[in-house]
Amino acid sequence: MTRLSELGESHIISRVLTRNPESAHVIVGPGDDAAVTAPEGRLVSTADMLVENEDFTRDWLDWDLLGRKAAAQNLADVCAMGADPHGLLVSLAVPDDTDIADLEALYSGLFDEAERAGTALECTVPIIGGDLSSSGLIVIAITALGTVREDAAFLRSGAQPGDALYLAGTVGRAAAGLDLLFAGLRRETAGPELRALIDTQLAPRPDYGALRTVGTPSAMIDVSDGLSLDLARVAAASGVGIDLDRALLRDLIDPLLPAAEVVLDVRATGGAGDADSSDGRAATADDLALSWVLDGGEDHGFAASAPSRQDPGVGWRRIGEIRTGHDVSLDGTPVPASGFSHFGK
Amino acid sequence: MTRLSELGESHIISRVLTRNPESAHVIVGPGDDAAVTAPEGRLVSTADMLVENEDFTRDWLDWDLLGRKAAAQNLADVCAMGADPHGLLVSLAVPDDTDIADLEALYSGLFDEAERAGTALECTVPIIGGDLSSSGLIVIAITALGTVREDAAFLRSGAQPGDALYLAGTVGRAAAGLDLLFAGLRRETAGPELRALIDTQLAPRPDYGALRTVGTPSAMIDVSDGLSLDLARVAAASGVGIDLDRALLRDLIDPLLPAAEVVLDVRATGGAGDADSSDGRAATADDLALSWVLDGGEDHGFAASAPSRQDPGVGWRRIGEIRTGHDVSLDGTPVPASGFSHFGK
């Protein structure tokens, strides 16, 4: 093991950036005061941060998966605008006794996820800048940049009554994984089915490829905080109501039932706490699984509205429809927006 | 006092962004999955992070000045490329018992510094995105974006033997301020001269305006880690040696002598520790002041090389020259690169 404190900053940076891909649009990469790149069209930019003890704990930390998650949550936001990723800026604070191998694993996760997005969207996603700092807590702050043709960005504000609502990827699996972690399960010991849910929490895999087949959605959002909260944002931005169809959500709910049984069992026997759980006090496995689907966002599924006559592309499933009104509802009954929000309200 | 935990994330964000300036190049600002902007020319991007206990302590925290510093250190990097600032993405983690008034002060500092840069360079610098998270430690991670005409970026790699070396702004004042803080002084109680040094540490004021008069430098760098280290980077990137002229540095050294006397007095009487001081064991006030000038970077002065026949613009002072070789030297004697580096080497 080699601790970062035994190495210099510039040596560390060159080690972790060894895999950084060549990109034709990078004119000056990491190493000067700032990067110089050549974007085409409009610039799309977003920033998101993962903080130890808030977004993950040392107890279930996997450096490679943390890197994947940090990249995925930012790339999903760029891609949900209909943009092609252009590059990442990665600011990282870690304890100075961190093993360089762990840091390399984190960057390996970043590069893997950036490559996954790049492969799906036929582009290269280099790291173009960033910062490395020491800290008692692990913090990873990423800015993702992308480019999109003029007037081609997918906003939250264009949904129209009569449109159908589609989802690419999943919702609820990461929330189920989080409750399994809170219930004391770990990816190393869980069976394959539950482990897959934990893995979605630790490193979501947005379906970037579905964005190539989406056509022209009237609105689009990266579901990062839960369907109930994120669709409420679309409803507010578009001035519409959105009705989810429970029957169409069954394919998302049913695979979560075994995990829901496990979590309810642990709770019933007074197992590990679930203070941060988003689901309140679900009485049945079906209730709990539904609450994960409605309020669990970290899968980074993409929700899009489009005229219902338009054929949904590969990877998209219909889950509801856009109506007049201003609420998010499930089979006509309003759903409170209770997905994830920092600072509690 | 209203703690953040009593408010919702979206309410907090709208409060702190009240002052966000309108900008013609912002098509979609904060509030969607990502921002959409219209950069002209090449894109310049940089990211830098301030972490509690590493870059500042709660003991001498001033939220407004922290915001100014976080903006300044990023804007300086963008501007040192010859670019006009385009926008900031601000990711922030703070304890959830933070007073909303403190967070508003931090953003006020960010906006003030962005406005100072924008006024100097005749542009508008909005916050276009970011993230707000809770954390036990305060972390502020900023990405600054800028734009520059094709082939007009100032790199570190163009310095030529025979060029003169110029500085805009100062070096050493922030390092003196840091040693004063370590020696137990505080801005509230220090006299005006020492307080000004502490203020440079807490909130540097880069001379953005000097970048309008710089003409076409052969190389440029934001001096953030100290002249000795940052000029070594220019020397390495350009394949040259750089000789500093001690007589030309006198105007930077002399104003620091009173602070150096104070710091040496406190040390001699066994006062507050100086574990993080960058200057080793300076024997005289002149030695200490010189070490601040050579190794102290957080003033964010701009160093530039240019043909010596070229008239330096307003705000630039000559401090040395570019030679053949590969070292940084002072009156011909090599200077070790001992400015700031994370992880100790």
TrEMBL record, chains A, B:
Task: Kindly list the positions annotated as binding substrate.
Answer: D55, E298, F340
**Residue numbers binding Mg(2+) 4:** D33, T46, D77
Q: Does the keyword Disulfide bond apply?
A: no
List positions binding Mg(2+) 1.
Answer: D48, D131
Q: Which residues form the PurM-like N-terminal domain?
A: 31-148
According to the UniProt entry, its GO molecular function terms are: ATP binding; magnesium ion binding; thiamine-phosphate kinase activity
Give the UniProt keywords, A-Z: ATP-binding, Kinase, Magnesium, Metal-binding, Nucleotide-binding, Thiamine biosynthesis, Transferase
Q: Which domain of life is it from?
A: Bacteria
- The record lists Mg(2+) 2 as bound by D48, D77
Q: Which residues bind Mg(2+) 5?
A: D225
- Pfam families recorded: AIRS (PF00586)
Q: Does the keyword Lyase apply?
A: no
Tell me a GO biological process for this protein.
thiamine biosynthetic process
Family membership, please give it: Belongs to the thiamine-monophosphate kinase family.
Q: What else is known?
A: Reaction mechanism of ThiL seems to utilize a direct, inline transfer of the gamma-phosphate of ATP to TMP rather than a phosphorylated enzyme intermediate.
In terms of PANTHER family, this protein maps to:
THIAMINE-MONOPHOSPHATE KINASE
UniProt name for this protein: Thiamine-monophosphate kinase
